[in-house]
Amino acid sequence: MPTTHAHGDLTPQLIGTPVWYDQAVAAAGIPIYDAPFVSVGGGLGSFILTDVLRIQGAPASAIRVVSTSETPWQSWEYLTRVSQLPVRERIRSDAGARPDNLWGFPSYAMTEAWQDKSIALAWQVLVEPLFADFFAPRAGTVFATVRKEAERISYWNMLAQGQVRMVRRRAGGGYFTLVTPPAGTTPTKRIAIRSRYVHLAVGYPGLKYLPDLQEFRETYNDYHRVVNAYEPHEHVYEFLKTRPGVVVVRGAGIVASRVLQRLIDDRERLGLQTQIVHIFRTYVQGSHGPGVWMRRKGGDGWAYQAFTFPKSAFGGQLKAQYRNADADKRKQLSKAVGGTTTPPLRRWQGQLRRGRQGNWYHPMQAVVEKVEPTMDGRLLSHTRGDDGNRNRLVSDFVIDCTGLEADMAEHRVLDDLLRNGGARRNGAGRLAVGPNFEVLGAASGDGALYASGAATGGNHFLAVDSFMGMQTAALDIAADLAKRGFVRRLGPVRSTNQWLKWALNRSI
Amino acid sequence: MTPTLAGRIQTRLFMLGTVGVVLTALIVPVLPGTHGGLAATYKSAFVMLVAVAVVGVLWELLYHLLMQFRWDKDWPTLFGLVTILPEGLVMFLLLRAGVVPGVGGKVAASTFVTMFVFVWIGVWLFSNGPMRVPFVQWRLRGGRLL
């Protein structure tokens, strides 16, 4: 029989079959490896779940993490670094949200206070948020502690390098995870991991750009003057060090705040003459919300919030309310607490105040209709305000800080799961998951497929895309796996024993 | 902390029933200003602990109401500490007014303050950290144990 594919590669028959038989995979020449549990992604979502599973008694040999990343923090480190959050800077995260420590005790505040011998940090966490900004750990603290925990749980032994192409259900139960290992490391192009359970933590499908900026880039092939804050754009800051310039910043979230901080830090430290025009699509005048019980602070264009959601969305009243609400009520709640926000840090407030007083920071409300190049190679933004006023702004750079997310189907594995895996979208367009983060419709015999992170937004829990959200998902998944007999329950005795091992840095 | 109402009440009762009981048992022998035998002091002390728990449920209702004015629906660490003042004052006045049944005679201010502060600080410290160690879901469920 003539074959149109290489031995050990996908066949048209496999691609076209939602449920795979062992014989069909073997017949294609794809080697099959067995592991009870596979986590796809290899970022912090995979790390946090494997940490919980190891703590609940799963041996390292029962788990495979398939990833193109060498470390669990690689992708997060890249995104934080380019979006102006170097390792010494503090992230937007609570002291008790520790990806390396399920219990959140001692908190990052206590750990940093001890390491730095700093009473100030302990004081901050005592009086936050009343007399000080919320404590937040340094990015570097997160990397270092996750590295230590990865060593402790033998994470590196569980990690398998490779690009996951698809996850398909297996006839007889469980799944095949089809992997393309790095070229030259295996005799065949693909390998398959046969497992009873699969976990998907693939992060963001990708970035999406504002339509007018996308159009500008494609029309003029200029990726230099119009940049996205999540892409490397150090050249903007370098240019501004050599001559005075005008920068348009678009967006009103945490990344906009950090980009402004970088621009202003450079301006004040090096005595630069940078002019900043900050365009808010929605200009927040002050406190806002549906009623006296739900008023969010705001002002000077910004909506203020310490974390990505109100704090109680992570483990309190809002989490409970949202979980118990029906679809309509959830939509209502999510609208009330959603939207772009930034923490009102005292340092940023001071910088922007000086900018307004010194007339070099110009916030404005507008929608940008078009961006085009000027004759002298600069940028012309055509804007229209809500009051109907049209304006033309000339700048040297536009920094897009809006951070729009691409559609889930942009991710190959998720797309395949929706087409062939039985998974479906929820009202928010993300993966529909049950209360245990089991992907609905994707069960296979006695096997189960779970997901956590950004792909699971819009279900029963708001804060999926956060350290604590991923821990919540991990605990709920592990509780389900305990019922299925894969791991032990995490009762008070095991929890305390395991915490002691963590505290003493004993390998498990 | 980000408690729910059920979580507040459960946490209060659990804390007083465990950490509170242990700390009360430890402090009673060295309480100043007591008169009568050790057994009588123990009895009064544990009755006071129960009173703090019962009246505490009412306090939690008030705190829950006040928390609704906060966007984050959180209860800052410092609130958990400074509420010792109104709660301590009200409990002392109730004792002096003689409306707490089972407490024999007049409780000296020094006795009350020593015990109340000792137990309060102990419970506050425990609930701001070590509690998460045996009960890993506790903080994720708004302080609910059940």
From TrEMBL, chain B:
<keyword id="KW-1133">Transmembrane helix</keyword>
<feature type="transmembrane region" description="Helical">
    <location>
        <begin position="44"/>
        <end position="63"/>
    </location>
</feature>
<feature type="transmembrane region" description="Helical">
    <location>
        <begin position="75"/>
        <end position="95"/>
    </location>
</feature>
<protein>
    <submittedName>
        <fullName>Uncharacterized protein</fullName>
    </submittedName>
</protein>
<feature type="transmembrane region" description="Helical">
    <location>
        <begin position="12"/>
        <end position="32"/>
    </location>
</feature>
<keyword id="KW-0472">Membrane</keyword>
<keyword id="KW-0812">Transmembrane</keyword>
<feature type="transmembrane region" description="Helical">
    <location>
        <begin position="107"/>
        <end position="126"/>
    </location>
</feature>
